[in-house]
Input
Amino acid sequence: MVKGKTKPNFEIFWTKGSKKINFHNPNIFFCLGRRGSGKSAFLETIGYHHLQNGCKILDLFGSKDGEGLAWIRSKVAEDYDTKLIHGEMVDLQKHKGIKGTKFSLEDLKKADIFISASPLYTSMDNEFDSVNHIFDKLWNRTYWSTPIFIIIREAANLLYSRVKVRKNQPMAKAELTYMLRESRHSGLALGLDSTKHTSIDVDIRKLTDYLVLKNLGMYGLPKDLHWIYSIFDPNTLQKFNPNEYGLVTKEGAMGLGTFDLPRWHKRKGEHILRKVGVNPKYYESEKESEQAIGYVREVCESLTGNFTPSDISDWIKENKGVEIRPEGVGLYLRRIDYTTENQSIDGKQMRTVKQIGGS
Ligand SMILES: Nc1ncnc2c1ncn2[C@@H]1O[C@H](COP(=O)(O)OP(=O)(O)OP(=O)(O)O)[C@@H](O)[C@H]1O
Ligand SMILES: [Mg+2]
Output
């Protein structure tokens, strides 16, 4: 039986102060937690509440395996219209999508839920171009009546995409901080998640209206948030189940809560493209890519144990004399039903290659 709720709800028990969350306001939610702690599921649940309160949803940066596409099979999507946003060289065949680099504010009238997922692009570069274009359009929205809840499943991606247009990291970071600060004026609510306690998070966290704490694993809270331990026991935070969370509002109210798993949420190892009937066709010099796919398949079938897209790239260079960048390998992997997954090996985080649906 598929677990989860078609109308996922949440509860909160305030332990210090209290606040009614208004899901029609352009607030910033920032979700911090280790891998698999239920961050994405939480963002989907509150996304659902934004939708119910008259907002639109833009699911922008999903994981590489297209997690955001799961909205299509939600009961919610039967009541609301969904539109896919895709890359230049991608044909969605049965689905009529919007090309990301051509996205205009007028397009917002076409649906309630917009999904831009990695498998709908030929490369990460294309995805970043598209996201940057959408961002620039949305942040120039001077007049709005419908707020948009933007889901960004890995906050660091936002910075990487801005580095692409600004060329240097400090400038991109300054601009991004400015954009987030100004987001409410353009009617943009944001739901960000992160596993990392990197410097970008500190600046972004300062702008959040709601800090959501999931299971933080062995590393615990970053230093600037250690004051939270005076209210929430560190042990409790370390033992959270995926349906549990702590909440800190920008006014300092704090609470503990539980939420339902949305029924549509993508399960681990699930081939979501197939499940929702999206079959993108990639046009990138078909002949060349067929050959590259052949090489990638050969490596996947020959290597054993844990290996990464960089290992595949090195192997192809050494054995075939052909250079395929690790990002390119990532794209070809998807086309032969493989994906990458973060794994901790000897205490080091690595993106290892896995067969979709395999163990
Ligand atoms: N509210 C919930 N109730 C029960 N189980 C849940 C709930 N939320 C999440 N889970 C379980 O935890 C799993 C991981 O959730 P989710 O994908 O949201 O984690 P994540 O923190 O986003 O992971 P990642 O860091 O890999 O992106 C889900 O597939 C589901 O099995
Ligand atoms: Mg996630």
About this structure: Residues 10-259 form a domain with the Rossmann fold fold (CATH 3.40.50.300). The two ends are 20 Å apart (CA to CA). The chain is about 35% helix and 20% strand.
